Amino acid sequence: MKTRVAIIGGGPSGLLLSQLLHLRGIDSIVLERQTKEHVLGRIRAGVLEQGLVKLLEQAGCADRLHAEGYVHDGTLISYDNSMFRIDFTEHTGTPVIVYGQTEVTRDLYAARDAAGGHIEFQVEDVVIHGADTDAPHVTYTSQGQQHRIDCDFIAGCDGFHGVSRQSIPLTVRREYEKIYPFGWLGILSQTPPVAEELIYANSPRGFALCSMRNENLSRYYIQCALSDKPEDWSDEDFWQELKRRIPADQAEKLVTGPSIEKSIAPLRSFVTEPMRWGRLFLCGDAAHIVPPTGAKGLNTAASDVHYLYQGLCDYYENDSTAGIDSYSEKALARIWKAERFSWWFSSLMHRYPDQSEFDLKMQLAELEFLRTNKSAQQAMAENYVGLPY
Ligand code: FAS
Ligand code: PHB
Questions:
Q1: Mean predicted confidence (pLDDT) in 293-304
Q2: β-pairing, 199-203 with 206-214?
Q3: How far is CA 127 from CA 47, 109, 164, 166, 253, in A?
Q4: What does the alpha-carbon distance between residue 237 and residue 229 come to, in Å, rounded to a whole number?
């Protein structure tokens, strides 16, 4: 097989890139390790920045998002049994849209299917060859058969555990990582959200987040020990703990119910540099990870796709390598700012096992400063709604 861009990974990064390129007449083949059903079974991000919304509009995949997504002009932050609001629209003129990543991925698959996009599912043994030459190719097996794709470029959109990042020699790669000493236990319940906006809670018992997917589908998280397993937590235990971590007036009106999904996500900050090696470009989680506190994971994957898409269009339409040559630098400049915000917000909202009394005083002083200072709220709002591409 031959294609212009071989895309490894059929998650949001790979699908969005494939669809955008298709609309500019640039063909690609997507290789996905799992089945479509498996990919669509993942419950992940929930908050979309305007930059991602605009990309989905460009990709012709935003109709359902605009029909079913929730426009949020602000978010709520609670500590010490009180709550205050960060007004995104007052400080930035920009809202965010609450619409699950699962639905984004569903919309992207529908668009690729409608366009006759070439996606290979359940592929195995994907290997990148000649990324540092002008004639790269990818091999893989499917149903026991070995296949080869000759291409101009390879987009590594295969997430943190994929093969793409590992294909860049360690002599070239530099990696930066921070592992957080806790995880997030998340549940999905067919219950009405406790509040109209998200509540990020810092409590003496740890962090909690009240989010949503629609008026009868809520997404809740509580900070948990890394040693915890989902089966250690009954639904009742979860609800009782969540109620202890949010303000009493919110806990009183919390509607509980059976969980339809329960999982624990570890938290890490991770960046690999550079995000390009020859004809291989890394996008999204293949190159970087953020703690979900700032809702930046999916949204930084989107800005990577934007830069790479622009660069590939420049190459094929204007015979210019300027865009692909500057890809890694441009993508990393925005990624490091998202890493900072995600690390800052995680440090602000979680209780750390080794936190001293002084550290706790600093955390509460930072929360009090955010609650009372307009400039601090402006900075928070600008980062949360998404810094410019
Ligand atoms: P993805 O990991 O989504 O997709 C990569 C795809 O590549 C997968 O479908 C995988 O099956 C495939 N693949 C892997 N190896 C392959 C191989 N060798 N060959 C072929 N295919 C291969 N972000 C937020 O903003 N908010 C959140 O609340 C949030 N929660 C998260 C919870 C969890 C458990 C995880 C893991 C991530 C979470 N994220 C969250 C981050 C998440 O949303 C990612 O940023 C987003 O999925 C990035 O999309 P991709 O880069 O496409 O990577
Ligand atoms: C979610 O709804 O899953 C969600 C929202 C905001 C976050 C993290 C997760 O910061």
A1: 98
A2: antiparallel
A3: 33, 24, 8, 10, 53
A4: 13
Rounded-to-integer distance, Cα 20 and Cα 312, Å: 11
Q: Kindly report the number of other CB atoms within 10 A of residue 38's CB atom.
A: 12
Mean pLDDT of 144-167: 98
Q: What is the pTM of this model?
A: 0.97
Q: Which atom of ligand 2 is nearest to the CA of 219?
A: 2
307 is catalytic: no
Q: Identify which of 158, 303, 308 to mutate to test ligand 1's pocket (most ligand atoms within 8 A of the CB).
A: 158
Helices 357-372 and 327-349 cross at an angle (nearest 10°) of: 110
Over pLDDT 70: what percentage of the chain?
A: 100
Q: Which of 290, 273, 293 is nearest to 346 (CA)?
A: 293
Domains of the chain (ranges; CATH) run 5-70+98-177+268-345 (3.50.50.60), 180-266+351-385 (3.30.9.10)
Let me know if 70 is a catalytic residue.
no
- The burial of 263, by beta-carbon neighbours within 10 Å (0-12 exposed, 13-18 middle, 19 or more buried), is given as middle
CA distance 18 to 22: 6
Query: Between helices 50-58 and 12-23, what is the axis angle to 10°?
Result: 40
Non-local CB neighbours of 356 within 8 Å, separated by 6+ positions: none
User: 274: cis peptide before it, omega within 30°?
Assistant: yes
Assigned token pair, 146? 């070995």
CA-wise closest residue to 68 among 36, 106, 12:
106
**Which residue has a Cα nearest atom 51 of ligand 1?**
284
Q: Which amino acid is at 90?
A: E
pLDDT digits (tens, 9 = 90+) for 175-224: 999 999 999 999 999 999 999 999 999 999 999 999 999 999 999 999 99
Buried b (16+ CB within 10 A) or exposed e, 316-341: beeeeeebbebbbebbbebbeebbeb
Closest residue by CA, ligand 2 atom 2: 46
Which residues does 297 contact at the CB level (< 8 Å), separation at least 6?
A: 44, 45, 285, 289, 290
